Amino acid sequence: MKKNHKTTDSTKVSSAGNTPDHKTTADEKLTRILYVTPETMPFASTGGLGEVSGSLPKALNADPDLNAECRVMMPLYKAVSDEYRKKMIFLGCKMIPVAWRSKYLGLFRLDYEGVVYYFIDNEEYFKRDGLYGHYDDCERFAFFSRAVFESFEFMDDFVPDIIHANDWQTALVPIYQDALYHLEYTSTVFSIHNIEYQGNYGKEILDDVLGLPEGCEHLVEWNGNINLMKGGIQTASLINTVSPTYAQELTDPYYAYGLDAIIRENRFKLHGILNGINTKTYDPAADDKIPAGYTPDDLSGKAVCKKALQEALRLPVIADIPMLTMITRLVPAKGVDLIISILESIVQKNAIQFVILGTGFEHYEDYFLSLQDKYPDKVRAKIEFSNDLSHKIYAAGDIFIMPSRTEPCGLAQMIACRYGNVPIVRSTGGLRDSIRDCTLGEGNGFVFEGYDAFGLYDAVMRAISLYNDNENWKKLVSYDLTLDFSWSSSAKKYMEMYRKVSYK
Protein backbone atom coordinates (compact mmCIF):
# COMPACT_ATOMS: atom_id res chain seq x y z
CA MET A 1 0.00 0.00 0.00
CA LYS A 2 1.45 3.37 -1.01
CA LYS A 3 1.75 6.06 1.60
CA ASN A 4 1.17 9.77 1.27
CA HIS A 5 3.66 12.40 2.35
CA LYS A 6 1.74 15.56 3.10
CA THR A 7 1.10 18.40 5.48
CA THR A 8 -2.05 18.53 7.53
CA ASP A 9 -4.52 21.30 6.72
CA SER A 10 -3.84 23.14 9.95
CA THR A 11 -0.14 23.58 9.20
CA LYS A 12 0.02 24.54 5.52
CA VAL A 13 1.83 27.82 5.96
CA SER A 14 3.36 28.49 2.54
CA SER A 15 2.84 32.07 1.47
CA ALA A 16 2.66 31.04 -2.19
CA GLY A 17 0.33 28.07 -2.02
CA ASN A 18 0.02 24.88 -0.06
CA THR A 19 2.72 22.22 -0.07
CA PRO A 20 1.39 19.57 -2.48
CA ASP A 21 0.31 16.08 -1.59
CA HIS A 22 3.24 13.93 -2.76
CA LYS A 23 3.01 10.21 -3.34
CA THR A 24 5.76 7.67 -3.67
CA THR A 25 5.97 6.17 -7.15
CA ALA A 26 9.01 3.87 -6.98
CA ASP A 27 9.82 0.66 -5.15
CA GLU A 28 8.29 0.90 -1.67
CA LYS A 29 11.42 -0.67 -0.21
CA LEU A 30 13.57 2.22 -1.41
CA THR A 31 14.46 4.53 1.47
CA ARG A 32 14.64 8.18 0.45
CA ILE A 33 16.87 10.41 2.54
CA LEU A 34 17.20 14.18 2.27
CA TYR A 35 20.52 15.13 3.84
CA VAL A 36 20.19 18.76 4.95
CA THR A 37 23.47 20.46 5.71
CA PRO A 38 24.90 23.98 6.00
CA GLU A 39 28.01 22.91 4.04
CA THR A 40 29.19 20.23 1.63
CA MET A 41 32.42 19.38 -0.11
CA PRO A 42 33.36 20.27 -2.81
CA PHE A 43 30.90 23.17 -3.11
CA ALA A 44 31.39 25.14 0.13
CA SER A 45 32.93 23.82 3.32
CA THR A 46 34.80 24.85 6.45
CA GLY A 47 35.80 21.46 7.84
CA GLY A 48 34.63 18.07 9.03
CA LEU A 49 30.89 18.50 8.45
CA GLY A 50 31.56 19.43 4.85
CA GLU A 51 33.66 16.30 4.36
CA VAL A 52 30.95 14.10 5.89
CA SER A 53 28.24 15.73 3.77
CA GLY A 54 30.34 15.21 0.68
CA SER A 55 31.03 11.53 1.38
CA LEU A 56 28.16 9.84 3.23
CA PRO A 57 25.43 10.45 0.60
CA LYS A 58 27.73 9.08 -2.12
CA ALA A 59 28.43 5.97 -0.06
CA LEU A 60 24.72 5.41 0.61
CA ASN A 61 23.85 5.68 -3.07
CA ALA A 62 26.81 3.64 -4.29
CA ASP A 63 25.89 0.45 -2.43
CA PRO A 64 22.93 -1.22 -4.19
CA ASP A 65 22.38 -3.54 -1.23
CA LEU A 66 21.39 -0.55 0.92
CA ASN A 67 18.47 0.32 -1.38
CA ALA A 68 18.83 4.01 -0.55
CA GLU A 69 18.38 7.22 -2.49
CA CYS A 70 20.10 10.05 -0.66
CA ARG A 71 19.90 13.61 -1.92
CA VAL A 72 21.57 16.65 -0.38
CA MET A 73 20.23 20.16 0.27
CA MET A 74 22.41 23.15 1.14
CA PRO A 75 22.46 26.94 0.69
CA LEU A 76 23.69 28.41 -2.59
CA TYR A 77 26.56 30.37 -1.08
CA LYS A 78 28.67 32.91 -2.90
CA ALA A 79 31.53 30.41 -2.45
CA VAL A 80 29.92 27.90 -4.84
CA SER A 81 32.00 28.28 -7.99
CA ASP A 82 30.81 28.95 -11.53
CA GLU A 83 32.16 25.51 -12.45
CA TYR A 84 29.16 24.03 -10.62
CA ARG A 85 26.65 26.86 -11.13
CA LYS A 86 26.71 26.55 -14.92
CA LYS A 87 25.66 22.89 -14.64
CA MET A 88 22.70 23.58 -12.33
CA ILE A 89 19.06 23.37 -13.40
CA PHE A 90 16.60 25.96 -12.11
CA LEU A 91 13.54 24.18 -10.66
CA GLY A 92 11.38 27.03 -9.44
CA CYS A 93 10.91 29.94 -7.06
CA LYS A 94 8.38 31.36 -4.60
CA MET A 95 8.07 33.62 -1.59
CA ILE A 96 8.14 31.93 1.80
CA PRO A 97 7.58 33.11 5.39
CA VAL A 98 10.36 33.79 7.87
CA ALA A 99 8.35 34.81 10.92
CA TRP A 100 6.65 38.07 9.79
CA ARG A 101 8.82 38.43 6.68
CA SER A 102 8.23 37.16 3.17
CA LYS A 103 11.48 36.09 1.47
CA TYR A 104 12.48 34.85 -1.95
CA LEU A 105 13.29 31.16 -2.34
CA GLY A 106 14.87 29.80 -5.49
CA LEU A 107 15.72 26.14 -5.98
CA PHE A 108 18.47 24.73 -8.20
CA ARG A 109 19.42 21.12 -8.88
CA LEU A 110 22.82 19.64 -9.70
CA ASP A 111 23.51 15.99 -10.48
CA TYR A 112 27.09 15.31 -9.44
CA GLU A 113 29.00 12.07 -8.90
CA GLY A 114 25.94 9.94 -8.27
CA VAL A 115 24.11 12.35 -5.96
CA VAL A 116 21.35 14.90 -6.57
CA TYR A 117 22.16 18.21 -4.86
CA TYR A 118 19.57 20.91 -4.21
CA PHE A 119 20.75 24.47 -3.65
CA ILE A 120 18.58 27.01 -1.86
CA ASP A 121 19.02 30.43 -3.44
CA ASN A 122 18.57 33.74 -1.65
CA GLU A 123 21.26 36.32 -2.36
CA GLU A 124 20.28 38.50 0.61
CA TYR A 125 21.23 35.68 2.99
CA PHE A 126 23.88 33.70 1.13
CA LYS A 127 25.73 35.98 -1.31
CA ARG A 128 28.34 36.86 1.31
CA ASP A 129 31.96 36.16 2.11
CA GLY A 130 32.20 33.28 4.57
CA LEU A 131 29.58 30.71 5.44
CA TYR A 132 29.05 31.62 9.10
CA GLY A 133 29.75 34.35 11.61
CA HIS A 134 27.28 36.94 10.31
CA TYR A 135 25.12 39.09 12.57
CA ASP A 136 21.92 37.46 11.29
CA ASP A 137 22.97 33.82 11.19
CA CYS A 138 19.90 32.78 13.14
CA GLU A 139 17.60 34.40 10.57
CA ARG A 140 19.62 33.02 7.64
CA PHE A 141 19.34 29.45 8.84
CA ALA A 142 15.73 29.83 9.97
CA PHE A 143 15.03 30.77 6.35
CA PHE A 144 17.05 27.80 5.10
CA SER A 145 15.19 25.41 7.42
CA ARG A 146 11.80 26.69 6.27
CA ALA A 147 13.00 26.47 2.67
CA VAL A 148 13.65 22.74 3.07
CA PHE A 149 9.93 22.08 3.42
CA GLU A 150 8.76 24.80 1.08
CA SER A 151 10.93 23.38 -1.73
CA PHE A 152 9.22 20.01 -1.97
CA GLU A 153 6.73 21.15 -4.61
CA PHE A 154 9.65 21.70 -7.03
CA MET A 155 11.43 18.41 -6.36
CA ASP A 156 9.98 15.94 -8.90
CA ASP A 157 7.78 14.22 -6.31
CA PHE A 158 10.82 13.40 -4.21
CA VAL A 159 9.59 13.58 -0.63
CA PRO A 160 11.91 11.92 1.84
CA ASP A 161 11.22 9.13 4.26
CA ILE A 162 14.05 10.58 6.36
CA ILE A 163 15.17 14.19 6.67
CA HIS A 164 18.65 14.19 8.17
CA ALA A 165 19.64 17.56 9.67
CA ASN A 166 23.11 18.50 10.89
CA ASP A 167 24.32 20.78 13.69
CA TRP A 168 22.64 23.88 15.08
CA GLN A 169 22.31 25.61 11.70
CA THR A 170 19.69 23.04 10.64
CA ALA A 171 18.32 22.14 14.08
CA LEU A 172 15.15 24.02 13.13
CA VAL A 173 14.37 21.33 10.53
CA PRO A 174 13.13 18.74 13.06
CA ILE A 175 11.61 21.58 15.10
CA TYR A 176 9.60 22.86 12.13
CA GLN A 177 8.58 19.31 11.19
CA ASP A 178 7.28 18.84 14.73
CA ALA A 179 5.64 22.25 15.14
CA LEU A 180 4.61 23.40 11.65
CA TYR A 181 4.71 20.99 8.75
CA HIS A 182 3.89 17.53 10.11
CA LEU A 183 4.89 15.65 6.94
CA GLU A 184 3.25 12.27 7.24
CA TYR A 185 5.49 9.20 7.09
CA THR A 186 8.61 11.36 7.25
CA SER A 187 10.97 11.00 10.20
CA THR A 188 13.83 13.26 11.23
CA VAL A 189 17.39 12.50 12.28
CA PHE A 190 19.55 15.17 13.90
CA SER A 191 23.34 14.78 13.91
CA ILE A 192 25.54 16.54 16.45
CA HIS A 193 28.98 17.03 14.97
CA ASN A 194 30.15 19.38 17.72
CA ILE A 195 27.93 20.23 20.67
CA GLU A 196 30.07 23.24 21.60
CA TYR A 197 28.22 25.28 18.96
CA GLN A 198 24.51 25.27 19.84
CA GLY A 199 22.75 28.28 18.32
CA ASN A 200 22.14 30.22 21.55
CA TYR A 201 20.07 33.41 21.26
CA GLY A 202 17.87 35.70 23.32
CA LYS A 203 14.13 35.17 23.58
CA GLU A 204 13.42 38.06 21.24
CA ILE A 205 14.06 35.79 18.25
CA LEU A 206 10.97 33.69 19.05
CA ASP A 207 8.52 36.06 17.35
CA ASP A 208 10.98 38.05 15.27
CA VAL A 209 12.79 35.16 13.56
CA LEU A 210 11.57 31.66 14.37
CA GLY A 211 7.85 32.10 13.78
CA LEU A 212 6.81 29.07 15.82
CA PRO A 213 3.11 28.57 16.57
CA GLU A 214 1.82 29.67 19.94
CA GLY A 215 2.44 27.00 22.54
CA CYS A 216 5.61 25.65 20.92
CA GLU A 217 8.02 28.00 22.68
CA HIS A 218 9.05 25.26 25.09
CA LEU A 219 10.68 23.32 22.27
CA VAL A 220 13.53 25.82 22.01
CA GLU A 221 13.62 27.43 25.45
CA TRP A 222 16.57 26.44 27.61
CA ASN A 223 17.92 28.10 30.75
CA GLY A 224 16.03 31.33 30.10
CA ASN A 225 17.16 31.71 26.48
CA ILE A 226 16.69 30.08 23.09
CA ASN A 227 18.85 27.07 22.23
CA LEU A 228 18.28 25.67 18.74
CA MET A 229 20.33 22.52 19.27
CA LYS A 230 18.27 21.71 22.34
CA GLY A 231 15.14 21.93 20.20
CA GLY A 232 16.65 19.67 17.54
CA ILE A 233 17.53 17.08 20.17
CA GLN A 234 14.05 17.18 21.68
CA THR A 235 12.04 17.01 18.44
CA ALA A 236 14.09 14.71 16.17
CA SER A 237 13.02 11.08 15.78
CA LEU A 238 16.63 10.03 16.39
CA ILE A 239 19.80 11.79 17.51
CA ASN A 240 23.11 10.82 16.01
CA THR A 241 26.66 11.71 16.94
CA VAL A 242 29.76 11.05 14.91
CA SER A 243 31.29 8.35 17.09
CA PRO A 244 30.01 5.84 19.68
CA THR A 245 32.23 7.22 22.46
CA TYR A 246 31.13 10.81 21.83
CA ALA A 247 27.50 9.70 22.14
CA GLN A 248 28.24 8.40 25.63
CA GLU A 249 30.38 11.41 26.55
CA LEU A 250 27.54 13.82 25.81
CA THR A 251 25.63 12.54 28.83
CA ASP A 252 28.49 13.92 30.97
CA PRO A 253 28.49 17.63 31.92
CA TYR A 254 32.23 17.80 31.15
CA TYR A 255 31.59 17.25 27.44
CA ALA A 256 28.05 18.51 26.83
CA TYR A 257 28.44 22.29 27.27
CA GLY A 258 25.28 22.52 29.35
CA LEU A 259 23.09 20.13 27.35
CA ASP A 260 23.83 16.93 29.27
CA ALA A 261 20.42 16.93 30.97
CA ILE A 262 18.47 17.10 27.67
CA ILE A 263 20.81 14.47 26.19
CA ARG A 264 20.16 12.12 29.12
CA GLU A 265 16.43 12.77 28.82
CA ASN A 266 16.59 11.68 25.16
CA ARG A 267 19.19 8.97 25.57
CA PHE A 268 16.73 6.33 24.30
CA LYS A 269 17.04 7.76 20.78
CA LEU A 270 20.79 8.49 20.85
CA HIS A 271 23.12 6.73 18.39
CA GLY A 272 26.83 7.05 17.68
CA ILE A 273 28.35 6.08 14.32
CA LEU A 274 32.01 6.63 13.54
CA ASN A 275 32.61 8.74 10.46
CA GLY A 276 34.68 7.50 7.56
CA ILE A 277 37.04 9.31 5.19
CA ASN A 278 37.09 9.68 1.43
CA THR A 279 39.61 7.01 0.48
CA LYS A 280 39.84 8.28 -3.09
CA THR A 281 40.84 11.75 -1.99
CA TYR A 282 43.22 10.33 0.60
CA ASP A 283 45.09 7.59 -1.24
CA PRO A 284 48.89 7.58 -0.93
CA ALA A 285 49.16 5.27 -3.92
CA ALA A 286 47.42 7.72 -6.28
CA ASP A 287 47.48 11.17 -4.61
CA ASP A 288 48.57 13.79 -7.16
CA LYS A 289 49.30 16.28 -4.36
CA ILE A 290 52.30 14.30 -3.09
CA PRO A 291 55.63 13.81 -4.94
CA ALA A 292 55.60 9.99 -4.89
CA GLY A 293 53.08 7.25 -4.26
CA TYR A 294 53.52 4.31 -1.94
CA THR A 295 51.72 1.18 -0.73
CA PRO A 296 51.88 -1.17 2.28
CA ASP A 297 54.22 -3.43 0.29
CA ASP A 298 56.46 -0.65 -1.03
CA LEU A 299 57.17 2.26 1.32
CA SER A 300 59.96 3.77 -0.77
CA GLY A 301 57.73 6.59 -1.98
CA LYS A 302 57.14 7.75 1.59
CA ALA A 303 60.86 8.45 1.95
CA VAL A 304 60.68 10.52 -1.23
CA CYS A 305 57.78 12.52 0.24
CA LYS A 306 59.73 13.16 3.43
CA LYS A 307 62.80 14.38 1.57
CA ALA A 308 60.69 16.66 -0.63
CA LEU A 309 58.96 18.26 2.37
CA GLN A 310 62.26 18.77 4.18
CA GLU A 311 63.62 20.53 1.11
CA ALA A 312 60.48 22.62 0.64
CA LEU A 313 60.48 23.73 4.29
CA ARG A 314 64.27 24.20 4.35
CA LEU A 315 64.79 21.64 7.06
CA PRO A 316 67.93 19.49 7.08
CA VAL A 317 67.40 16.52 4.77
CA ILE A 318 67.83 13.58 7.13
CA ALA A 319 66.16 10.31 6.21
CA ASP A 320 66.31 8.48 9.54
CA ILE A 321 65.03 11.20 11.87
CA PRO A 322 61.42 11.02 13.10
CA MET A 323 59.27 13.82 11.74
CA LEU A 324 56.53 14.74 14.23
CA THR A 325 53.55 16.48 12.66
CA MET A 326 50.35 18.30 13.58
CA ILE A 327 47.56 19.56 11.31
CA THR A 328 45.02 21.30 13.50
CA ARG A 329 43.07 24.34 14.48
CA LEU A 330 45.10 26.13 17.13
CA VAL A 331 42.39 26.22 19.79
CA PRO A 332 42.23 24.79 23.35
CA ALA A 333 39.89 21.90 22.46
CA LYS A 334 42.59 20.46 20.20
CA GLY A 335 44.99 20.01 23.11
CA VAL A 336 47.36 22.77 22.03
CA ASP A 337 48.15 23.63 25.66
CA LEU A 338 49.39 20.07 26.23
CA ILE A 339 51.76 20.04 23.28
CA ILE A 340 53.08 23.48 24.16
CA SER A 341 53.88 22.33 27.70
CA ILE A 342 56.15 19.50 26.50
CA LEU A 343 57.30 20.37 22.99
CA GLU A 344 60.45 22.35 23.72
CA SER A 345 61.73 19.65 26.08
CA ILE A 346 61.19 17.00 23.39
CA VAL A 347 62.87 19.16 20.74
CA GLN A 348 65.87 19.80 23.01
CA LYS A 349 66.42 16.20 24.09
CA ASN A 350 65.72 14.26 20.89
CA ALA A 351 66.91 14.11 17.31
CA ILE A 352 63.57 14.97 15.71
CA GLN A 353 61.86 17.40 13.39
CA PHE A 354 58.49 18.98 14.15
CA VAL A 355 56.12 20.43 11.53
CA ILE A 356 52.78 22.07 12.34
CA LEU A 357 50.12 23.41 9.97
CA GLY A 358 47.16 25.42 11.19
CA THR A 359 45.68 28.71 12.34
CA GLY A 360 43.86 29.79 15.44
CA PHE A 361 44.46 31.76 18.62
CA GLU A 362 47.17 34.34 18.12
CA HIS A 363 49.16 33.42 21.22
CA TYR A 364 49.34 29.82 20.02
CA GLU A 365 50.48 30.92 16.57
CA ASP A 366 53.12 33.15 18.15
CA TYR A 367 54.42 30.30 20.30
CA PHE A 368 55.07 27.96 17.39
CA LEU A 369 56.63 30.75 15.32
CA SER A 370 58.94 31.65 18.20
CA LEU A 371 59.91 27.99 18.63
CA GLN A 372 60.74 27.86 14.92
CA ASP A 373 63.00 30.90 15.36
CA LYS A 374 64.70 29.27 18.33
CA TYR A 375 65.20 25.86 16.66
CA PRO A 376 65.43 26.59 12.92
CA ASP A 377 66.87 23.14 12.10
CA LYS A 378 64.13 21.28 13.95
CA VAL A 379 60.84 23.19 13.88
CA ARG A 380 58.62 24.57 11.12
CA ALA A 381 55.34 26.36 11.79
CA LYS A 382 53.09 27.02 8.79
CA ILE A 383 50.43 29.36 10.15
CA GLU A 384 47.95 28.93 7.33
CA PHE A 385 45.39 26.55 5.92
CA SER A 386 46.55 24.73 2.81
CA ASN A 387 44.88 21.56 1.56
CA ASP A 388 47.78 20.77 -0.76
CA LEU A 389 50.35 21.20 2.01
CA SER A 390 48.29 19.08 4.39
CA HIS A 391 48.52 16.13 1.98
CA LYS A 392 52.29 16.61 1.76
CA ILE A 393 52.63 16.67 5.55
CA TYR A 394 50.45 13.57 6.00
CA ALA A 395 52.62 11.72 3.47
CA ALA A 396 56.00 12.94 4.75
CA GLY A 397 55.37 12.65 8.47
CA ASP A 398 56.21 9.72 10.70
CA ILE A 399 54.30 10.57 13.88
CA PHE A 400 51.02 12.51 13.95
CA ILE A 401 50.11 14.21 17.24
CA MET A 402 46.43 14.75 18.09
CA PRO A 403 46.06 15.35 21.86
CA SER A 404 42.51 16.70 21.80
CA ARG A 405 40.67 17.60 24.98
CA THR A 406 37.47 16.66 23.16
CA GLU A 407 37.06 15.20 19.66
CA PRO A 408 33.56 14.21 18.51
CA CYS A 409 34.99 12.05 15.75
CA GLY A 410 38.13 13.41 14.17
CA LEU A 411 39.16 12.66 10.62
CA ALA A 412 42.81 13.65 10.83
CA GLN A 413 43.82 10.54 12.78
CA MET A 414 42.22 8.32 10.12
CA ILE A 415 43.86 10.26 7.30
CA ALA A 416 47.19 9.99 9.12
CA CYS A 417 46.83 6.21 9.30
CA ARG A 418 45.94 6.17 5.63
CA TYR A 419 49.32 7.79 4.88
CA GLY A 420 51.33 5.79 7.41
CA ASN A 421 51.80 8.80 9.68
CA VAL A 422 51.33 6.94 12.96
CA PRO A 423 48.95 8.84 15.28
CA ILE A 424 49.34 9.73 18.94
CA VAL A 425 45.90 10.49 20.40
CA ARG A 426 44.15 11.09 23.68
CA SER A 427 41.45 8.53 24.45
CA THR A 428 38.36 10.62 23.80
CA GLY A 429 35.46 10.60 21.34
CA GLY A 430 36.22 9.24 17.91
CA LEU A 431 39.93 9.05 18.70
CA ARG A 432 39.18 6.32 21.20
CA ASP A 433 36.99 4.49 18.67
CA SER A 434 39.53 4.56 15.85
CA ILE A 435 43.02 4.30 17.40
CA ARG A 436 44.32 1.41 19.52
CA ASP A 437 47.62 1.50 21.38
CA CYS A 438 50.21 -0.66 19.62
CA THR A 439 52.26 -1.15 22.78
CA LEU A 440 49.35 -3.00 24.40
CA GLY A 441 48.92 -5.53 21.62
CA GLU A 442 47.84 -5.20 18.01
CA GLY A 443 47.26 -1.51 17.49
CA ASN A 444 47.62 1.31 15.01
CA GLY A 445 49.00 4.15 17.12
CA PHE A 446 49.78 5.43 20.60
CA VAL A 447 47.09 6.35 23.12
CA PHE A 448 47.15 8.21 26.43
CA GLU A 449 44.16 8.44 28.75
CA GLY A 450 43.98 11.53 30.97
CA TYR A 451 44.16 15.07 29.69
CA ASP A 452 47.61 15.74 31.11
CA ALA A 453 51.05 16.61 29.77
CA PHE A 454 52.73 13.60 31.39
CA GLY A 455 50.54 11.19 29.43
CA LEU A 456 51.26 12.96 26.16
CA TYR A 457 54.98 13.13 26.88
CA ASP A 458 55.08 9.41 27.60
CA ALA A 459 53.19 8.62 24.37
CA VAL A 460 55.56 10.76 22.30
CA MET A 461 58.62 9.11 23.82
CA ARG A 462 57.15 5.65 23.21
CA ALA A 463 56.57 6.57 19.58
CA ILE A 464 60.12 7.91 19.13
CA SER A 465 61.53 4.76 20.74
CA LEU A 466 59.59 2.48 18.39
CA TYR A 467 60.58 4.61 15.40
CA ASN A 468 64.19 3.81 16.21
CA ASP A 469 63.33 0.10 16.04
CA ASN A 470 63.40 0.24 12.27
CA GLU A 471 61.97 -3.19 11.44
CA ASN A 472 59.00 -3.01 13.82
CA TRP A 473 58.29 0.58 12.84
CA LYS A 474 57.99 -0.39 9.19
CA LYS A 475 55.58 -3.16 10.14
CA LEU A 476 53.43 -0.65 12.04
CA VAL A 477 53.43 1.83 9.14
CA SER A 478 52.52 -0.91 6.66
CA TYR A 479 49.74 -2.13 8.95
CA ASP A 480 48.25 1.36 9.23
CA LEU A 481 48.23 1.63 5.46
CA THR A 482 46.00 -1.46 5.22
CA LEU A 483 43.27 -0.15 7.56
CA ASP A 484 39.80 0.46 6.13
CA PHE A 485 38.42 3.83 7.21
CA SER A 486 36.18 4.12 4.16
CA TRP A 487 32.57 5.22 4.30
CA SER A 488 31.22 1.86 3.13
CA SER A 489 30.95 0.29 6.59
CA SER A 490 29.67 3.52 8.15
CA ALA A 491 27.01 3.84 5.44
CA LYS A 492 25.63 0.42 6.38
CA LYS A 493 25.31 1.54 10.00
CA TYR A 494 23.54 4.74 8.94
CA MET A 495 21.01 2.69 6.98
CA GLU A 496 20.40 0.48 10.02
CA MET A 497 19.70 3.64 12.01
CA TYR A 498 17.42 5.15 9.35
CA ARG A 499 15.33 1.98 9.17
CA LYS A 500 14.60 2.20 12.88
CA VAL A 501 12.47 5.29 12.26
CA SER A 502 11.37 4.71 8.66
CA TYR A 503 7.68 4.01 8.17
CA LYS A 504 8.48 1.50 5.42
Q: Roughly what fraction of the amino acids lie in strands?
A: 15-25%
The biggest sheet, with number of strands, parallel, antiparallel or mixed sense and barrel status, is: 9 strands, mixed
**How many β strands by DSSP?**
20
Oligomer: single chain
Residue ranges: pLDDT <50 for 5 or more in a row?
1-26
Q: Portion of residues in helices?
A: 25-40%
Termini distance?
Answer: 10 Å
Structure description:
This protein is α/β, with parallel strands linked by helices. The protein has 19 helices and 20 strands. The protein has a nine-stranded mixed beta sheet, with helices on both faces. Residues 1-26 have low confidence and may be disordered.
Annotation keywords:
single chain, 20 strands, alpha/beta, nine-stranded mixed beta sheet
Which helices and strands, and how do they pair?
Elements: E1 4-5, E2 22-23, E3 31-36, H1 48-62, E4 68-75, H2 82-85, E5 89-98, E6 101-112, E7 115-121, H3 123-126, H4 137-150, E8 162-166, H5 172-181, E9 187-192, E10 200-201, H6 205-210, E11 221-222, E12 225-227, H7 228-235, E13 238-241, H8 244-249, H9 253-256, H10 260-265, E14 270-272, H11 300-312, E15 323-327, H12 336-349, E16 353-357, H13 362-374, E17 379-382, H14 387-396, E18 399-402, H15 412-418, E19 422-426, H16 429-434, E20 446-448, H17 453-467, H18 470-481, H19 487-501
Parallel strand pairs: 3-4, 3-8, 4-7, 8-9, 9-13, 13-14, 15-16, 15-18, 16-17, 18-19, 19-20
Antiparallel strand pairs: 1-2, 5-6, 6-7, 10-12, 11-12
